[in-house]
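The record is kept unedited without comment:

——
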Amino acid sequence: MMEFVMQQMKSTGIEKTGILIFGRIKMKQELELELVKKYPNLFRDYGGDMRLTCMTWGMSHGDGWYDIIDEIGRKLKDLGAEDMIIATQVKEKFGTLRFYYHYDSDKKYPKSFFDRLGRYYYPRNKLMMRIWHNKYSRGIKECLSKIRKLIFGYTFIEKIENIIDEAEERSSITCEYCGENGKIRDNGGWITTLCDRCEEKKWEKPI
């Protein structure tokens, strides 16, 4: 399927502009392949079966977020987690980056005492679940969680989540087209993050 899409893009010359034939922004293929080469474990499903992964379509956002994706891969590699998670979809949604992933079931990642505690002490009956999800209980849990992080630091899983969250937040101030400083803009219901220059040129021709 990926080969068919790329053939269609080449036949129309669209692969040079970074605009996918279906009207969505798409990163240039050469930039995608650079990321796949640098982080082969993280992007092992790139161009895979569309029935199993959304990475069939590559990275569905503009070239301007290349550095953000590169930073995700670099931080995960530094953490020792790049071969433990698999990217399943990378795209723009509501003007910001969405980086979806799952853990490789064949890999064992370090679990802290608090990871195990959350797994084994999660409520199993309806009454305890109602208490567990009560707004007052949530407030208490949030306070205890903040105290725990201050004293013991973040767990391995939380560190991975923080890397993704920070990248997605950074995308909200980074132009999706060119990578310069930008802001979220609402153009008749179509929300994008663009700099002033790309906002002006957007309606002239594809960037």
Remarks:
- The two ends are 26 Å apart (CA to CA).
